[in-house]
Amino acid sequence: MQDKKSYNKIIWDVEQALLNASVNSKASAPDKAGSSSRQKNYKLSYLAIRQFAECEDYDTGRLRLLLNMVYGWMPRIARINDASLETEIIKGLNLVRHRRPLSAAQLVHLINLGKAYMGSVVGFSKMLHFVSDDTFAIFDSRVLSAFIPFSGSEGDDPLQYKKDIANYRAYLQSNANSVENYIAYNTAMVEYAKAKNVSLRSVEERLFGSITEELAD
Predict the structure, then answer these.
(1) Which domain, by its residues, includes 148?
(2) What is the pTM of this model?
(3) Model pLDDT for residues 43-78, shown as the tens digit of each residue
């Protein structure tokens, strides 16, 4: 069974994570009913939200529209924890939209603002991605599972196995909401995409088990 202690260090190896994601995808039972229409809508809505996110500078109204679009796409119900942060977040998103370089300190500050505003690094990573899809990768517990896959087996103790799975999922969800983990993951993903001369989105889709573009050798 998987020892929880082995989850303590995350190795941000994108190549290995892509292999893990491929294995995870093959191991999952396919959802045939309606999967084609859902996948089509997923891709079309992704493009529509990205067009909205990139087309104009942000104000409070556009920020809140994007927030709800992103959460509808996730899907979750959006929440605003602290509206007083919106002015500063808007400034940051406009810098991102215009591809202005952010210092390490500015990036950490912006993501911390997003986490405080929305209560979710995962949600804010999606918002950043739609504003600048070649600079920011989407992050969540499913992506994280490709970097630290569960290696336990049911064996002779199915009850303990269920507990191990529950602990593993809780661990992933907790670590997916870490600003530090997101920045490390995003750095690894951006560098990998550049090294392979492919789009950041194509690497993401492989991590999610939806391969639409072959990576260069």
Answers:
(1) 4-25+37-207
(2) 0.79
(3) 888 899 999 999 999 999 999 999 999 888 876 677
